[in-house]
Design a protein that fits this description.
Helix content: under 10%
Strand content: 25-35%
Distance between the termini: 82 Å
Structural class: mainly beta
Number of strands: 6
Number of helices: 2
Shape: rod-shaped
Radius of gyration: 30 Å
Largest sheet: 4 strands, antiparallel
Order of helices and strands: HEEEEEHE
Length: 175
């Protein structure tokens, strides 16, 4: 029991997660990050970016014609069915995955202003050109490594689905 508790504590110390303080606009110092457990409870709010019920449009038809070939002695029966359903699903914006994955292009957000960074990865580690800056990054450090993000600026993912179904059966019946 003590060994598993020690491992859990070591994991939490090695894997720090943090978020901006609640009830702020995110424009606070990186020193004020609120630590969260190793598996963060604070995450992306999917409910704000998805539909409860998808939009759909349905139409179709069913028919049962019959044709007397030889009076009531030979009758041809048929069943016809057609249905078309078009559905549009709106999902949360695409996730980036980890900003640094071995073998892939490194994603990095430059610091708030040009100049030296306060901790975190360096310009050389991330491949960000020296002097690059992003005024929308509230921290004076490069955001990269194990950071995750949602590409909200590109809007929600929309998946359109169309299903067509049809059936035709014919049979003669003699009496």
């Amino acid at each position: 029991m003590l060994l598993s508790t020690t491992r859990a504590l070591a994991y939490r110390l090695a894997n720090f997660f943090g978020h901006a303080p609640f009830f702020t606009n995110g424009d606070s110092s990186w020193l004020r990050l609120t630590p969260t457990p190793a598996f963060p409870a604070v995450g992306f709010n999917f409910n704000a970016y998805r539909e409860a019920l998808p939009d759909s449009e349905r139409y179709g038809g069913f028919g049962m014609p019959r044709h007397k070939i030889c009076g009531d002695q030979l009758v041809l029966y048929a069943d016809m069915f057609y249905q078309n359903v078009q559905t549009s699903y709106e999902l949360a914006p695409t996730a980036t995955g980890p900003f640094e994955t071995p073998g892939h292009v490194i994603l990095a957000i430059p610091p708030h202003a040009p100049g030296a960074t306060l901790g975190g990865p360096t310009y050389q580690d991330t491949g960000v050109p020296m002097g690059a800056f992003n005024p929308f990054n509230p921290f004076q450090q490069i955001i990269s490594e194990r950071a995750l993000a949602r590409l909200i600026e590109f809007g929600n993912r929309i998946r359109d689905n169309e299903t067509k179904a049809h059936a035709f059966h014919a049979r003669p019946q003699g009496g």
